[in-house]
């Protein structure tokens, strides 16, 4: 029996509730309704008083969670969409992110952000916020791309004493399936070589890992190019050891992300590789992101807005031809 990405998130929360009495869930319509994407379905009945509906105020949700965490609890906050977390921005970056630095008291909250685009979602329900939160010290930002990581990284996030922004991709919720949640034991902060290769490296994360693999498979069939795909898994901290080791093997780099192009994770990866591994490069590094416009509603426009296997292959051919 297969398990989906969103099922893995639900199962992780169920295990956390079962194993740790300090854990509780808080969010809009997550109790009886089970959440906008059913990631908490049935948990309120199984754990009464620990799966709580919140007011429609992201600011209040995170503020309450910070207070509870300071008092010894381990709250998991569900944002209905990552975009709405901007309403709680002050609480996340100015309160949770700095609290340990200011007081020596940790704030072990986990904020789940349903991230990224799906056809027809439009500009207010499709954004990728990981780089914004990664910009601030004191916050761990994770971006699971597999069913196994969706499960194990959420458990690891809640066990951390640091505030964690957990970016789960909505497009993967029911599309991505696996036979089990068994993982390879990688800790938070460690990248994974998803597809070995020798001619170029694609560094990606979240749903773009799968688009990168599709593009790499296509290039192998069409041209014989063997492309290595690195899944960052965690964008803060950033595992540059794995990235640089891959670039050392291949000599070429494409940094791939779904977020907007200005700044962001791909810019950080390119900057760090150029600074720390310029001597490893045989060609100027490239990066590929979504277009620098709000995310469009129409499915055809959305498909043209974000990187696809076709646009990834085009960028890779340019990189390989240098």
Automatic annotation (TrEMBL):
Keywords: Oxidoreductase, Thiamine pyrophosphate. One of its GO terms (molecular function) is oxidoreductase activity. Its EC number is 1.2.4.-. It comes from Haloferula chungangensis. PANTHER family: PYRUVATE DEHYDROGENASE E1 COMPONENT BETA SUBUNIT, PYRUVATE DEHYDROGENASE E1 COMPONENT SUBUNIT BETA. This is Alpha-ketoacid dehydrogenase subunit beta. Residues 3-175 form the Transketolase-like pyrimidine-binding domain. The keyword Oxidoreductase applies. It comes from the Bacteria. It holds the Pfam family Transketolase_C. Its cofactor is thiamine diphosphate.
